[in-house]
Amino acid sequence: MTEFFQTLGMTYEWAWFTSTIAGILLIALPLMLAVAMIIYVDRKIWAAMALRRGPNVVGPLGLLQSFADGLKVFLQETIIPSASNKALFLLAPIITFTVALMAWAVIPFNSGAILADINVGLLYVLAISSLGVYGTVIAGWSSNSKYPFFSAMRASAQMISYEVSIGFILICVVLWAGTFNMNGIVLAQKGHVLGLFNGFVFNPLLFPMWVMFLISGMAETQRAPFDLTEAESELVAGYQTEYSSMSFALYWLGEYANVLLMCALNATLFWGGWLPPLDLPVLYLIPGWLWLFIKIFFFFFVFSWVKATVPRYRYDQLMRLGWKVFLPVSLLFVVVVSGYLMATGHFGGHSA
After folding, report:
1. Distance of CA 220 to the CA centre of its chain
2. In whole angstroms, what is the distance from residue 249 CA to residue 216 CA?
3. Distance (Å, rounded) from C-alpha 218 to C-alpha 223?
4. By CB neighbour count within 10 A (0-12 exposed, 13-18 middle, 19+ buried), where does 57 fall?
5. 126 pairs with which residues across the strands?
6. What tens digit of pLDDT does each residue of 73-125 get?
7. pTM check: above 0.85
8. Three-state SS for 190?
């Protein structure tokens, strides 16, 4: 894209700057539209599983319901509790929303279609996703209210519990792919098993890692059955209790952008990203970005399916799953995967 702007007479510096801004807008604007529509899809899936209709009044088939809800919160008054820390109170939802968008910079939508093709892309995703909890913790503390504060403490413990196991799971992926580059990880999955399948998920050693990553992703994004930070029966609305208007809407947008990010990571790290499921020439006629979107939508359906059908965990069950099950199992698989790769002489995706 930089070369294109240079052909318009721009210097290299201005062409690079303009192409970067254009790339950001090309990701951020469709993502915002996708978030609005995915909230509608989420509600439709829940309704179908409860034998209800869901949104069906605003616009054709209810498609404009999310935009009507957005307009409603935009026109509401922003209420700031008098005893709160006002600066941090308003900063918290901005952090959550901004961090949710930043991680998309390293997600490859197709071969070469990536905003920042950096060698440490996976480390960048880990670092950015870890920052998301600050929006929750700051909101809980700055509200100066009991229930949001309890929610903030839960969020910090929950994030730490599942970040550790996610780290070990991703080590297995990096060992097999031999790179932290997101595009490189996708390409390493081409013709992975028997030269036919595209995806680490078809590997018997990495399939359990995907199952754990999917469950940890639900816990990381605080989706049911792990939405302990927003447990209505115990904490009213958790860290969002004191929020209203656009500050509340930013949390909603950030939450769904994070869910879509986890769906994209599932697709990219284990299901071949923009590659078709089978390494057949005819399937490559379908654009790579379309394969990626199909996979993201499938995983979003799984997230909604689980939310509609699985009851919420108790807090002690959540902690036990993270520390007593996922942590030792993921650590064991790091040893097993690295041992297998060393024994077969294919450490890091290449012959030793």
Report:
1. 9
2. 25
3. 5
4. exposed
5. none
6. 888 777 887 777 888 888 888 888 888 888 888 899 888 778 888 888 899 98
7. yes
8. coil
